[in-house]
Amino acid sequence: MKKLHPQPYWWDWPAVALLFMLLQVLSSRLVTTTWTPHLNFIQIFTSMGIVIGLALGYSQFARKNARWISFGYMVIMLPLIWTRVIDNQVELDERLLSVGGRLLYSVSEFFSRRPVEDPLFFVAIMSITFWIMSTSASFSLTRHQNFLAAVLPSAIGMLVIQHYDNGVTGRIWFLAFFIFIALFLLGRLNFLQDQRNWRDRRVFLSPENSSDLTSSMAIAAGLIIITAWTMPLSITSNATVREAWERITKPWTAFTDRMENAVSALESPSGGKPGEFYGTELELGSGFPLSDVIMFTVETPDLPFDQKPPRYYWRGRTYDYFSGGQWYTTGTTRGEFSPVESNPTIDDAVNNDPVRFIFSLGKSKFSLLYAPAQPVWVSRPGSYLASPAESTLNITSWNATPTLLPGETYQVDAVVKNPNIDELRAAGAEYPQWINARYLQLPEDYSPRIKALAEEITATAETPYDKTLAITRYLRENIEYAPTIPTAPKNTDLLEWILFEYKKGFCVYYATSEIVMLRSIGIPARMAVGFAQGTGTSQDGINQEIEDIVINSYTVRKNNAHAWPEVYFPGIGWVEFEPTGNQAPLDRPIAPLENTDSTGGLNPNNLPQPETEPYNLPPDDIDGLNTDPSQTDSTFFPLLYLLPLFIAFTALTIYLSRRYALTTRVPAFVRTTMERSGIEVPIWIIHWERWSFLSPIERSFESINFGLRQVNQPAPVHATPLERAKSLANILPQLEIVIKVLLDEHQTSLYTSRVADEKQARRAAYQIGMQVVLALLRFFWTGSYEATVTQVKK
Fold first, then answer.
1. pLDDT tens digits, 392-445
2. Contact of 698 with 541, CB cutoff 8 Å
3. Number of other CB atoms surrounding residue 595 within 10 Å
4. CA–CA separation, 81 vs 719, rounded Å?
């Protein structure tokens, strides 16, 4: 077809309506496949893309600029719609983070040539494809009246969908209706072209004639469709035709074979059933299925030493009934939970203030939510299992609905307790009735030898805490840790065999042995399962001492799967103990003295220590953190359109950065995402993450380290801030006063209760940087730094 001459502000309502119907038929055809949930998003994106494309085509924007504007709208609108795959009760920022994490994980799986099981990945691919297709078609129709550019991509899409979804015969009529509208649009554009030519030649065309021609085009299009549908089967089944079709489609077949991993999730509309690590029952068994697969990462709040527990345990569920070598949860009912509605009254939450934890899923999907101590609120809707606890609830597990997928994020408000030794000893043994009724149960065939052993171990202990501690120490000292155990001899009590003969076991056997021994002497205890603390990541400042390091992020793998006993103390609640031999012992704080020191009254020997040594960045590598932002080329977009968008984007960025600390969370998110994908994290990302957690004063002080490196006199790692400042002042004496100002503010922020002047520190850092650059220029021309010193003395 001959293309119309481009003319400004071309518009034809019938042609626009036909194109809208054409693209909606295509998107509806995709929805009818029911390949995956949320395909109805594609219809929304198609409608939005048509509107944007028509507006840009009708405008005077150049094609290149129109593409960038369309891309900007896509980047803003598509993620907002994708967040609807997560329940609307979840806050928007968490939904955005979860969607982004899921897509990053899916992309890494795809490029690693592994099947992508998250259906959101396919929805995202289709969303982007249909957005580009609809905006391009609308732009081409309005700007150039180009039929092929407007229809051909969608026609190919219709054929591809029909090829992969041909099981239902009735759906072929979508293709027929699509062809009918396409032929009608073709006739309409040809009629407009002819009408223009007739007008140029002064040929009169009445409205009645126009209506007749339009009707004739519709009839002709219908006849073509009927003819095609009644074509003899012998023609379409001809071997030569089939061979020609196979040759034509061979490149497409090869491409779809490579793209097979991208549509792995389409085999199940729900994306598959979750395989939980812990079920409603726990068998003693022979071992856990351990691996290096990352389960999740946790961002923890910065708690003072007197509140932070000796170690975090990420609990998934608890069990109360033990019989026949297996643990069960009994007497519970399931309740529904919504993050925006009133919370259940929880036993451990009474008279305690919760704190916020942020969990990011690794390579596994699960619905059982893990949390420290006792969660009282979760950001995802779902349900919980609970048993009555007088006027409150004793919750044993939380589940999210729907299942969380790799890359998603959820938040937990949990009660974190760190009772000191004297508080535990003073708790007494006046247990509530509901505790005695549920957590003193023993098997009917409970071994008298184990009970006698428990009484012997605790003979000299007076309080329940001392008795629990004695049993914990006995198990740690007398039972050797083994990740797996063989089958016990027949007709043998399994726990007796572990405690008196084999004397080896893993966490489930340690915890079970302690629980049944405690129950036999009247101390209520329960089994808790989940994951141990995991690998800590340091987020401390570069110049801090080792005892000041704060671990605020943990990476938890399947290797950290763990079971431990929890003991009930009146007035305190459930408290963890660690009898397992391969885990470090728990060092609880002693009671604070009357004259407390800076440690908050804690026993210096009992301060919690990180399980892994922090990664200390050498000062020489800090310069990689101060890269100048790249300058973007100016464009010719009208400020009328760009200025409001730029202002809105800037305001949104500032708002999110201040409210959700994006400057610190983004580098940590990038690092954890790469670790989940098995990609080696570049050193500059580690530098970036470390830099984001420095205080403004510490960032200013880095100008001294920068100066020392530039003059080839880097300070050793062990050098103090004072030594670093003196070294630079000796080399560049003209900076002595400025360096002293910066050093004073740095020491004020570290060692005094006064607030340092950040503006003065920044000014001093700027002057140091400028003088260092001048010194480098002098060195370039004179070959010596001493020339600068000589000039200053003169």
1. 888 889 999 888 888 899 999 988 888 889 999 999 899 999 999 999 999 988
2. yes
3. 6
4. 53
* Candidate from 87-96, 158-167, 482-491, 733-742 with smallest mean pLDDT: 158-167
In angstroms, the Cα distances linking 763 to 305, 758, 767 are 35, 9, 6
User: How many degrees, rounded to 5, is the angle at CA 401 between CA 399 and CA 402?
Assistant: 130
* 38: three-class secondary structure by DSSP: coil
How high is the pLDDT of residue 262?
53
Report, as an integer, the average pLDDT of 748-753: 79
Q: Tokens 């593409």, residue?
A: 67
Distance separating alpha carbons of residues 667 and 738, to the nearest angstrom: 32
CB neighbour list of residue 257: distance below 8 Å, 6 or more residues apart? none
The H or E element spanning position 20 is helix 13-32
3-state helix/strand/coil string of 674-732: HHHCCCCCCHHHHHHHHHHCCCHHHHHHHHHHHHHHHCCCCCCCCCCHHHHHHHHHHHC
Per-residue pLDDT, averaged over 747-755, amounts to: 79
Lowest mean per-residue pLDDT among 153-167, 224-238, 338-352? 224-238
Q: 147-164 vs 172-200: helix axis angle to the nearest 10?
A: 170
Helix (H) or strand (E) holding 376: strand 374-378
Please identify which residue in the block is written with the tokens 């302690």: 514
pLDDT digits (tens, 9 = 90+) for 280-290: 888 887 777 77
Q: CB–CB of 451/539 below 8 Å?
A: no
State the CB neighbour count (10 A cutoff) for residue 202. Answer: 6
Confirm if 536 and 550 have CB atoms less than 8 A apart. no
What is 352-408 written as a DSSP string? Answer: ---EEEEEEE-S--EEEPPEESEEEEESS-EEEEEEEETTEEEEEEEEEEEEE-TT-
Q: Vertex 364, ends 362 and 366: CA angle to 5°?
A: 115
Report helix, strand and coil shares of the chain as percent, to nearest 5: 55, 15, 35
Distances in Å between the Cα of 66 and the Cα atoms of 15, 389, 633 are 21, 63, 17
251 near 293, Cβ under 8 Å? no
Residue 781 near residue 774, CB atoms below 8 Å: no
Q: What is the pLDDT of residues 134-145, one digit of tens each?
A: 998 888 888 888
The token pair at 184 is: 């009608």
Q: Residue 121 gets which letter from DSSP?
A: H
Q: Do the strands 561-569 and 525-531 form a parallel or antiparallel pair, or are they unpaired?
A: antiparallel
How far the first Cα of the chain sits from its last, in Å, is 85
Rounded to an integer, what distance in angstroms lies between the CA atom of residue 739 and that of residue 768? 7
Q: Where are the alpha helices (DSSP H) in 490-567?
A: 494-496, 507-520
Burial string for 568-589 (b: 16+ CB within 10 Å, else e) reads bbeebbbbbbbbbbebeebbbb
Report whether 570 contacts 589 (CB < 8 A).
no
